[in-house]
Amino acid sequence: MRSIGQSVPRLEGHAKVTGSVEYIHHLRLPGMLYGKIHRSALAHARIVSIDASAALALDGVHAVITIQDVLSLVPNPYYGPAFHDQPILAHGKVRHVGEPVAVALAVDPHIAEQAADLIHVEYEPLDAVFDEIEAARPDAPIIHDVLKPAGMFTDLKHLGGRSGTNVALDARVRRGDIAKGFAEADRIFEHTFRTGKVIHATFEPMVSLAEKQGDGITIHTASQSPSFVRAEVSRLLGWAENRVRVRTAFLGGGFGAKLYIKLEALVAVCALLTGKPVRIGLSMDEQFYTITKHGATVRIKTGVTDDGRMIAREVETYWNGGAYADIGPRVTQKSGFTAAGPYDIEHVALDNYAVYTNHPPAGALRGFGISQLVWAYERQADIIAREMGIDPLAFRRKNVLREGRPHATGTVVTDMEIDAVLDLLEKRMDWRRPFDRGTGVIRRGRGLAIGLKACISPTTSVATVLLYGDGSCALHCGTVDMGQASDTAMAQIVSEVLGIQTQSIRVVRPDTDVTPYDMATLGSRSTFHMGNAVRAAAEDVLAQVFHIAATSLDTEVSSLECVDAEVVSSRGARMTLREIMLARFAMQAGTIVGTGSFAPHYKKPDPATGQSPDVTPFWMLGGAGAEIEVDTETGRIEVTKLVNVADVGRALNPASVDRQLTGAAIMQVGFTLFEEMVFSDGQVVNASLADYKIPGFLDVPRDISAGYVEVPHRNGPYGAKGVGETGVFSPSPAIANALYDALGVIVHDLPLTPERVLRAIRQAENRPLGDE
Amino acid sequence: MKLPVNLSVNGQAYEEEAEPRTLLVHFLRERLGLTGTHVGCVVGECGACSVMVDGALVKSCLMLAVQAHGCEVTTVEGLAQRGKLHPIQEAFVHNFAMQCGFCTPGFLMASHALLERTPNPTEEQIRQDLSSNLCMCTGYVQIVEAVKEAASRLGEWRKTHT
Question: How much is the pTM?
Answer without folding.
Answer: 0.97
